[in-house]
Amino acid sequence: MIVLVLLHAVVAVAVLTAARARPVAGAVLGCAVLGATAVTVGVLGIGRSTVRHEAWAWVPDLGLQLAFRLDGFAVVMALVVSVIGVLVLAYSISYFDHDATYVRFVGLFVAFAGAMTGLVMAADLFTMFVFWELTSVCSFLLIGLNDRSAAARTAALRALLVTGAGGLCLLAGVVLLQVAAGTSDFAELASAAPVGSMVTTAACLALIGAFTKSAQFPFHFWLPGAMAAPTPVSAYLHSATMVKAGIVLMARLAPVFGDLDVWRWAVVVCGGTTMLLGGARAMRQTDAKLLLAHSTVSQLGFLTLLVGLGVPGATYAGVAHLVAHAVFKAGLFLGVGVVDHATGTRDIRRLSGLAREMPFVTVCMCAAAASMAGLIPLFGFATKEQALVALLDADAGAAGTVALVAVVVGAVLSAGYSVRLVRGLFGTKRDLADIADVEHAHVHVHHRPSVGLSVPMASFALVSLVAGLGADTVGRWLQAPVVALDAGATGVLHLWPGLTTAFAISLTVVALGAVLGWRVPDAVAPTVVSVSGERIFQRVFDGLLDGSKRLTVVTQSGSLVAYLGIVMAVLTAALVAGIAKDPGAGFDDLRLADSWVQAAIAAIAIVFAGAVVAARDRFVSALLIGGVGFACALLFALYGAPDLALTQILVETLTIVVFLLVLRQMPRRFAADPVWAPKVVRLAISVGVGCAVAAFAVMVSAARRAPSVGGTYAELSLPEAGGNNIVNVILVDFRGVDTLGEITVLATAALGVTNLVRMARRARARALEAAAPSPLEGGSDT
Amino acid sequence: MSLAMVVLIAVLFGTGTYLLLHRTLTRMVLGVGMLANGVNVVIVATSGPPGEAPIVGREGTTDSVPQALVLTAIVIGFAVTAFLLALAWRNWTIDGNDAVEDDVEDRRVARADERRVVDVPSAEDVEL
Predict the structure, then answer these.
(1) Which of the four, A21, A153, A159, A712, has the lowest number of CB atoms within 10 Å?
(2) CATH architecture, range B3-50+63-109
C-alpha cells in the first residue's frame, strides 16, 4: 500500500518535470497508475479473510508511524478514488488543450489521487492527517490551475484557508485524543471507547476539521467558489473524492463518538442545515455547474447526517449513498463539461432544445440526474430508500427525528434541482426570447461531443443504472465495508422495496420535487437564506488584515524617541515588578555615606548632572558632562578602584575633546526641541527610571548569596599570571578574549566614525559645487 | 550601601533618561553618556563596601571582577559616544539639522488609509 502511494508521487513528479512536451503520454501514464491501483486494491482487499496492515516507522521516538489498513471500507473508497480517477483523467484528454497548464493538471491530479488513496487507507489519525493536508494543498493548486484569473486565485486561497484552518483543528483534536486514549489507531479507538471532557473536546475539534473539508454549514461557502477550477477538477476533487474526506473521517470516528450528545447534535444540525441550504441555493442557480456545486453541498449534508449519526443502518445507507453520489455526481459534472465544450456556455437560461441536438448526452444526464433525484430503478433510489428505512427505524431520540425531517425535505429539494438541471440544460424553452437580460438567447452547438468526452460520462450513467438494477447484489457487497466501520452495522439495498412507509415517502418526495423543479422559473432567484458563511469569512479575513495594519501603525510609529520612551517605561515596569517580589530588601543596610568626602563628591556630581539638563548651550553642556565623569572617577578612586579612576579620567578627557571638535561646527545653543510627548510624560518616565534603578541597586547590593569569583582570581593572580594587580590580570589574561572583543568594538566604532566623517565631507563638497558651479564647467557648457 | 551613592544613581539615570528622550541628537548623546556613567556607578556601588584596591597581598580589598567589567564598559562607552557624535556631525553637515526625524516609511504606512481593494468574487457570481 505504501508502494502504491509512493508510485503516485513518483509519477506525479515525473509528469511535472519530464512530460512537458507530451502531456497526453503523461495522462495515459497517470491512467495506468490509477488503474493499477484499482486492480491491486481489488486483488489485495476483496474476498480476503485477513485484513492487510502495513506500517512504516516515521518518528519512532514519538511513536509516530505511517500505518495503512486495507479493510473493507478502505477497499471501497480506494476503488471509488482510483476508478473515478481513471475515467475523469481519460475525459480530460479531450477536454483540455494540450499545453503547459494541462501538464500541471495531470501531475497534480495524479498527486492528488495518491494523497486521497493514502487518506482512505490510513489506519490511524496521524497518517490520515498527513494525507488530509496533502489533499488540501493539491486542491489549492488545482482550483488555482488557471493562475491568470484573479477569481480562481482568490477561490483557491479561500478554500485553502478554510480547509487549512479545519486541518489545524483536526490536528489539535488528534493530539488530544492520542493523549486521552493513548492511541490514534481507528480500530483500537473503537474498542477502547475513551470518555472524558478531553475526548469530547477532541471530538468537537475533529468534527470541525471534517466539516470544513466536506463543506458543511457554516464552512460550506468555499465549495461553490472552488468551481473556478476546470470541470474535471470539480468532478473529481470537489464532488466525488476530496470533499468525501470529511465523511470518511466521520465514518471512522462515529463508532467512537456517535453516542456523545455534542457530536450527534452537531452532526444533525450542521448536516441538516447544509442539506437544506445547499438544496435551496441549488434551486436558485442559473449556471449549471454552480447548481451542481450547491447540490453537492446538499448531498454532503445528507451524507454527514447518515454517517455521523453512528446508527448502524444509517451508516450502511451512508456508505452506499457515498458511492452512489460519487458516481452520479461525477457523471453530471462531466456532462455539464460536455455541454460547455459543445456550446460555450453553461447558463441554463440560454440553452434550449439541446435534447434534439445532443440526444446521447441528454439520455446519460437524465440517468445520472434520476439517480440524484432518487428515481427507481437507479442506484440513488436504492440508497436513499435504505436511508429512509434506517432513519425510520433508528433509535436515536429527538436527533433522529430531526434528521429524518431534514432528509425528507432535503430529498424534495434534490428531486427539485435534478429536474431543474435536466430541464434547464436540455429542455426546449419557448419563452426564451422574453428574458430581457440575456442578449444572445439561443446558443448553437459548435461541434458534436467527441468520443473521449462521451465515453467517461456515459460510463458513470451506466454504472448508476446497472448498480440500481442489481441493487440487491451490490447491497450484499457493501456489507463487508460497513462491518469494517461498525461491527453491528447491517442493511440491505432493494431494487423494489415493496409497498412500505419509506417507499410511500419516496414517491411523495419525488412528485413534490418534480413540481418544484418544474415550477421555479429559471430567471427568478428567490432569496431563501440570508445567512452567508462566506460574508462572515470575508469579514474575518479583512478584519485580520486591517487589524494587523492598525497594530503596525500603533506599534511602529516611526518615532525613535517614542520607541525609547516605551523601552524606558518597560524597563521601569520590569524593575518594579522585580522589586515588588521582595520589597524593602537591602534598605536596612543603608548608610548615609561611607565618608564625608564621598558624600561631597556625589553631591557635586548631582549638581553637574542637573546643570547638564538645564544647560541651553552645547559647549557648556559638554563641559558639564565631563564634570560628571570626573566626579565619578573620584568616587571610583575612593571606592578602592584606582584602575577605574585612571581609565575614567583618560576617557573623559578624550570625550570632551571629541565633543568640542564636533560641536565647534554646530551652533552654540540648542534649537527649540520639537515636542513629541507632553513634558509631564517625559518627566514621569525619567523619574520612574531613576527611582526604579536606584531601588534595584539597593536590593541587588543585599542579594549576594554566593562568594564572588574575585576570590579565586586573587589566589590565582600571582602564581598563574605573574601579576599583582588583579584587575589588570583579569583584563589581559583571565578574560583576555573579552578584551579582544572590546578592542574590536573600538576598531569598528573608529571605522564607522571615519566613514561618517568622510561621507559628510564629500556630501558637503558636492553641495557647495552645486550651489556655485566653477567657471570652467560653466564655460564648457556654453 | 551608602545613601549618597543611591541618590547619585537615581539622578544619573533620571537625567540620562530625560536627555535621551529629546529629539536633538546632541542631547541624546549627552543622555547616553549620563546613562553610561550611571550604569558604571551601579555596578561599582553594588559590589560591596569601599576598601583597599584589589592588589595581591593586601587585606580588605574590594571585589576585582566588577571593576574589570566596568573598565571594559568605560572604554566601550567612549566608543559609542564617539560614534554617535560622528553621526550627529554628519547629520548637521548634510542637512543642517540636529534633530532625529520620524521614519518616513512608517509615517507613510500610518497615513495610508486607502485600503488595498481586494476584489473578491462571491460564491454566487464566480467567473467560471
Answers:
(1) A21
(2) Orthogonal Bundle (1.10)
